[in-house]
């Protein structure tokens, strides 16, 4: 036990402190075997109290077994083994703490260096006044003088908003994937996924649906048709019935209101925990995309004069929904908003501090690294980050590479001054406390004497009161109420200990524990069962029968009655969690006139600043918890003052107040929407043609009628028909001449000339069934063209009439053209080309026979993906980084550059770098981290078997390009068949998932430098791709027809 002297000393002190040791042999006193010597109370204290600090729950069970063993030798052996487990646990914990300390120090150094680099690029200094963020956040409630806060009713709040926004008709999309979500009788506490977040998103959707100016709110979640859960979770749509309000807008259409929309994804007959949803995220995105596109058209007919009404924002809740919202936001080109609720990096640090699991074990159990990467993507993609408390921003979001409070303030100050940010972007953070529904609060509870109001009430007592009262010997004593699921982080065990060991508190009060719903402890999850078992053992240990209530069942509608019962007895509500992201139950309790005792870690600090209705405690200090509870229960004047303060200030947390602030933030975002114009709507809606061969490659004129500026701003037009002359288009194209391949520019201009001088229409290949997408990332051109030829041959021979073809690749369009012509493949054999890793889309052009490259560039797509693109400023940073990567392995030789800019393969939205020695460059995640720390938002990936590095816009990828074509062409994603190899570029995982069908060609790309490409992922591919999906099949590379036959997409 060398190096752990503190453990030795503690164990020896325990043995020495026992009365039986006095006068014994000194040699025996130093024994570390914890042998049976009579009294074991110090050792019991060590096991129960000290070991609990390590959160090793099995040790107490070992102690119980050892103490119950009759044989002295066997008991001593068990105790000795337990002693060594304690020592190993302590050593493991110290090792993890040391590693985390080194990691934290490294992170601080990297962040400081990034700040210096960013400041060096942003050469204009800020004045002292600009260094302070002058944009006020909604969280400033706590800094206001409470005496000046007027009482504002919900009616007044809505009427004020209505007078300013009565002409708006907004469409808002909320996403919350995990848990069981329904509008009524929510099963909160059923499991760890069905908790406060479920209640929050449902009430937010309902409240937004009642706000003037909001036409429709969709809350998207998972459809679950499983015998494990109620059938209501399998209903595709559920309207959230609004409460009574006189302020509902008069302009109500048949699709207006708030709805829960359930999208089927993942196994249809299983309810999955949130950690198991990751492989099915892409499938949800495709399903949600179909719903939003359909609803946008429906709303367009109702309120948009025939034009689609796109969402004003897509709001993701939690990491899984945030990841989905980022992909949807990029596809639809609409603003994204994100609320984390609980953050992965903070949870990882808390688990590591406990010392029970290594980082690898935590990742295996919680898929924590995939969650953290999703949260980093949310920072890259979001316009707004909404937090409940300032602590969440300053204490949790600052753990992420993509967020820095100091850099955010500098960037916002530069934006206000109209000064360039040099390609750097940071999401705006706003603190908006969750709202509270007051329709369940009895008016009498808000003012006047509680007992008097209850005594004169004509209604019978709620049934839940009897369920709780039956536990108590003296039910008239004040009730200490805790309402939380049985989770270790909720710290319920510490609460019971504090209550059990404080005699004065036991004499004055009862304790009520509402710990979710259960039928049998054995049927609960192991974590919940262990917490509940520990609580029951403590009740028995302290003989708390008749003083503690722990009912097995309650309904969501019973919760207000439980608060009322606690207030009637002049009780106290307590939230003793180790850390609480916000603390919605504290607001609910305050609205019923209950003073609070809450943890000082997290959101309760901000709530207490506003309400001033209780005391904050250290959740790790048992005595502090007991003293605070005793103080509020015993001092009647303090209790009354806290009750009055809470009721006086609770209006600041009402849903109308929340929604007013929320909508004001949303409407401040720069409006974005799909960037193309439907030039001929009748072509899109044309009846099915007789010939199945009408497609993009069969039309003589494929003019895109480009009418968009290169900065992504849409031209102001009243109609869908582009009737401008060549001057309006040619001028914009000439500005891009230096950015596009020479031949492509000429072809694009020529296409527009013919499009404006003819009456032909741009017919879309929407009736292609199916569309085959060749996305095989081969290392050599021979392999690549071989696959293309085999696919062409199979499609021509056995494919359905009118099948479509798309080539998706990391090659440039020039390389694609050279590759195709080298084997006599015509560009017109394809409908589209997704090039440069998804940063460009080209279409074959029949107007460029006299030009170099027969392709037309989709400039709409470029304007679609340019969001947060750093451009030349990003390129300069990457060039500096490339210069710093050198190979100094040779003895006596000069340092050799490892990474160099590849100008031939670079384009406006793809910065290419050649990698001379793939083994000498850092993993892709390190480069992503570097870019995020400097607030440069981009998508970094290795291509060409690891010999090429591509940096493209953050929301650009080959999978996103397919979704763009789905929106533009109107084809069904389920009609797409994607062919890939066994491995591929860094974006390989994104291509596999979704509702499209996938054929994995075995034997191709299996040796594509996996050490470079796979190292970009900090999680196994199986964690994020459902390889057991019926939409994914495997076949040999020379048996493509067999694989397609398995999917049923061939006609013969």
TrEMBL record:
<dbReference type="InterPro" id="IPR035659">
    <property type="entry name" value="SPS_C"/>
</dbReference>
<comment type="similarity">
    <text>Belongs to the glycosyltransferase 1 family.</text>
</comment>
<dbReference type="Pfam" id="PF00534">
    <property type="entry name" value="Glycos_transf_1"/>
</dbReference>
<comment type="pathway">
    <text>Glycan biosynthesis; sucrose biosynthesis; sucrose from D-fructose 6-phosphate and UDP-alpha-D-glucose: step 1/2.</text>
</comment>
<dbReference type="InterPro" id="IPR001296">
    <property type="entry name" value="Glyco_trans_1"/>
</dbReference>
<feature type="region of interest" description="Disordered">
    <location>
        <begin position="678"/>
        <end position="697"/>
    </location>
</feature>
<protein>
    <recommendedName>
        <fullName>Sucrose-phosphate synthase</fullName>
        <ecNumber>2.4.1.14</ecNumber>
    </recommendedName>
</protein>
<dbReference type="InterPro" id="IPR044161">
    <property type="entry name" value="SPS"/>
</dbReference>
<dbReference type="InterPro" id="IPR012819">
    <property type="entry name" value="SPS_pln"/>
</dbReference>
<feature type="region of interest" description="Disordered">
    <location>
        <begin position="116"/>
        <end position="143"/>
    </location>
</feature>
<comment type="function">
    <text>Plays a role in photosynthetic sucrose synthesis by catalyzing the rate-limiting step of sucrose biosynthesis from UDP-glucose and fructose- 6-phosphate. Involved in the regulation of carbon partitioning in the leaves of plants. May regulate the synthesis of sucrose and therefore play a major role as a limiting factor in the export of photoassimilates out of the leaf. Plays a role for sucrose availability that is essential for plant growth and fiber elongation.</text>
</comment>
<dbReference type="Pfam" id="PF00862">
    <property type="entry name" value="GT-B_Sucrose_synth"/>
</dbReference>
<dbReference type="Pfam" id="PF05116">
    <property type="entry name" value="S6PP"/>
</dbReference>
<dbReference type="InterPro" id="IPR006380">
    <property type="entry name" value="SPP-like_dom"/>
</dbReference>
<feature type="domain" description="Sucrose phosphatase-like">
    <location>
        <begin position="780"/>
        <end position="986"/>
    </location>
</feature>
<keyword id="KW-0328">Glycosyltransferase</keyword>
<dbReference type="InterPro" id="IPR023214">
    <property type="entry name" value="HAD_sf"/>
</dbReference>
<comment type="subunit">
    <text>Homodimer or homotetramer.</text>
</comment>
<dbReference type="GO" id="GO:0005986">
    <property type="term" value="P:sucrose biosynthetic process"/>
</dbReference>
<feature type="domain" description="Glycosyl transferase family 1">
    <location>
        <begin position="474"/>
        <end position="646"/>
    </location>
</feature>
<keyword id="KW-0808">Transferase</keyword>
<feature type="domain" description="Sucrose synthase first GT-B">
    <location>
        <begin position="171"/>
        <end position="436"/>
    </location>
</feature>
<dbReference type="GO" id="GO:0046524">
    <property type="term" value="F:sucrose-phosphate synthase activity"/>
</dbReference>
<dbReference type="InterPro" id="IPR000368">
    <property type="entry name" value="Sucrose_synth_GT-B1"/>
</dbReference>
């Amino acid at each position: 036990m060398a190096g752990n002297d503190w453990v030795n000393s503690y164990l020896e002190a325990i043995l020495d402190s026992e009365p039986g040791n006095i006068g014994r042999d000194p040699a025996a006193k130093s024994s570390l075997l914890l042998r049976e010597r009579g009294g074991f109370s110090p050792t019991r204290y060590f096991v129960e109290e000290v070991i609990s600090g390590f959160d090793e729950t099995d040790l107490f069970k070992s102690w119980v077994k050892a103490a119950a063993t009759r044989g002295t030798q066997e008991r001593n052996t068990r105790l000795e083994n337990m002693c060594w487990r304690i020592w190993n646990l302590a050593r493991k914990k110290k090792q993890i703490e040391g590693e985390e300390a080194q990691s934290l120090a490294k992170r601080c150094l990297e962040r400081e260096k990034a700040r210096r680099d960013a400041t060096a690029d942003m050469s204009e200094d800020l004045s002292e006044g600009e260094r302070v963020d002058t944009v006020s956040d909604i969280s400033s409630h706590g800094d206001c003088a409470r005496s000046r806060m007027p009482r504002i009713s919900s009616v007044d709040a809505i009427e004020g908003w209505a007078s300013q926004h009565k002409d708006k008709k907004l469409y808002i999309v909320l996403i919350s994937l995990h848990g069981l979500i329904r509008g009524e009788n929510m099963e909160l506490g059923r499991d760890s996924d069905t908790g406060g977040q479920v209640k929050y998103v449902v009430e937010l959707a309902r409240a937004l649906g009642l706000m003037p100016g909001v036409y429709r709110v969709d809350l998207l979640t998972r459809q679950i048709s499983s015998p494990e859960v109620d059938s209501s979770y399998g209903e595709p749509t559920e309207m959230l019935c609004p409460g009574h309000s006189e302020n509902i807008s008069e302009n109500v259409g048949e699709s207006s209101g708030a709805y829960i929309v359930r999208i089927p994804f993942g196994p249809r007959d299983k309810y999955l925990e949130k950690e198991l949803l990751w492989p099915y995220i892409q499938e949800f995105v495709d399903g949600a995309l179909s719903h939003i596109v359909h609803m946008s058209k429906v709303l367009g007919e109702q309120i948009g004069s025939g034009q689609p009404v796109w969402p004003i924002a897509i709001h993701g809740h939690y990491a899984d929904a945030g990841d989905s919202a980022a992909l949807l936001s990029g596809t639809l080109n609409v603003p994204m908003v994100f609320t984390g609720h609980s953050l992965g990096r903070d949870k990882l640090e808390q688990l590591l501090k406990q010392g029970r699991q290594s980082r690898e074990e935590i990742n295996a159990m919680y898929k924590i690294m995939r969650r953290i990467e999703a949260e980093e993507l949310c920072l890259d993609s979001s316009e707004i980050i909404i937090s409940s408390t300032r602590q969440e921003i300053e204490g949790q979001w600052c753990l992420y590479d993509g967020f820095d409070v100091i850099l955010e303030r500098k960037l916002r100050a530069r934006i206000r001054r109209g000064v360039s940010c040099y390609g750097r972007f940071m999401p705006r953070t706003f603190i908006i406390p969750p709202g509270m529904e007051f329709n369940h609060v009895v008016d009498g509870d808000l003012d006047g004497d509680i007992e008097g109001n209850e005594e004169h009430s004509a209604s019978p007592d709620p049934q839940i009161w009897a369920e709780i009262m039956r536990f108590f010997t003296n039910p008239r004593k004040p009730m200490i109420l805790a309402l939380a699921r049985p989770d270790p982080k909720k710290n319920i065990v510490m609460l019971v200990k504090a209550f059990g060991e404080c005699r004065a508190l036991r004499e004055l009060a009862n304790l009520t524990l509402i710990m979710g719903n259960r039928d049998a402890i054995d049927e609960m999850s192991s974590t919940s069962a262990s917490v509940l078992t520990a609580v029951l053992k403590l009740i028995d240990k302290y003989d708390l029968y008749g003083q503690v209530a722990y009912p097995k069942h309650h309904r969501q509608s019973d919760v207000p009655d439980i608060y009322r019962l606690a207030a009637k007895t002049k009780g106290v509500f307590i939230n003793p969690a180790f850390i609480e992201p916000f603390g919605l139950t504290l607001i609910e309790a305050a609205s019923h006139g209950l003073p609070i005792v809450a943890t000082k870690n997290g959101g309760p600090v901000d709530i207490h600043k506003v309400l001033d209705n209780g005391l904050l405690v250290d959740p790790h200090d048992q005595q502090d918890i007991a003293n605070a509870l005793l103080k509020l229960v015993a001092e009647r004047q303090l209790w009354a003052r806290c009750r009055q303060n809470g009721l006086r200030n609770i209006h600041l947390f009402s849903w109308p107040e929340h929604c007013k602030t929320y909508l004001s933030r949303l409407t401040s975002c720069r409006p974005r929407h799909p960037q193309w114009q439907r030039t001929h709507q009748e072509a899109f809606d044309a009846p099915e043609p007789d010939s199945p061969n009408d497609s993009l490659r069969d039309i003589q004129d494929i003019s895109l009628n480009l009418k968009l500026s290169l900065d992504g701003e849409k031209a102001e037009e009243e109609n869908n028909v582009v009737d401008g002359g060549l001057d309006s288009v040619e001028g914009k194209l000439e500005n891009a001449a230096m950015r596009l391949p020479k031949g492509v520019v000429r072809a694009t201009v020529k296409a527009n000339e013919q499009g404006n001088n003819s009456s032909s229409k741009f017919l879309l290949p929407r009736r292609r069934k199916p569309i085959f997408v060749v996305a095989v990332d081969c290392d050599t051109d021979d392999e690549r063209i071989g696959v293309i030829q085999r696919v062409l041959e199979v499609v021509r021979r056995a494919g359905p009439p009118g099948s479509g073809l798309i080539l998706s690749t990391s090659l440039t369009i020039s390389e694609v053209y050279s590759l195709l012509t080298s084997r006599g493949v015509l560009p017109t054999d394809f409908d589209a080309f997704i090039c440069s890793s998804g940063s460009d889309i080209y279409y074959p052009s029949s107007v460029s026979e006299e030009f170099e490259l027969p392709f037309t560039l989709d400039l709409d797509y470029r304007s679609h993906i340019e969001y947060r693109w750093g451009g030349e400023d990003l390129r300069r940073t990457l060039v500096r980084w490339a210069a710093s990567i050198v190979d100094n392995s040779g003895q006596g030789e000069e340092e050799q550059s490892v990474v160099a800019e590849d100008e031939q393969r670079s384009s406006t939205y793809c910065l290419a770098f050649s990698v001379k020695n793939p083994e000498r460059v850092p993993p892709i995640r390190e480069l992503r981290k570097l870019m995020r720390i400097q607030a440069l938002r981009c998508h970094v990936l290795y291509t060409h078997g690891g010999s090429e590095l591509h940096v493209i816009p953050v929301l650009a990828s080959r999978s996103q390009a397919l979704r763009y074509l789905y929106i533009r062409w109107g084809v069904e994603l389920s009609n797409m068949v994607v062919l890939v190899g066994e491995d591929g570029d860094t974006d390989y995982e994104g291509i596999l998932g979704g509702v499209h069908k996938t054929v994995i060609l075995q034997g191709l790309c299996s040796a594509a430098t996996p050490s470079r490409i796979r190292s970009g992922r900090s999680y196994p591919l199986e964690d994020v791709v459902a390889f057991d999906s019926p939409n994914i099949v495997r076949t040999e590379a020379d048996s493509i027809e067999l694989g397609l036959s398995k999917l049923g997409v061939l006609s013969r």
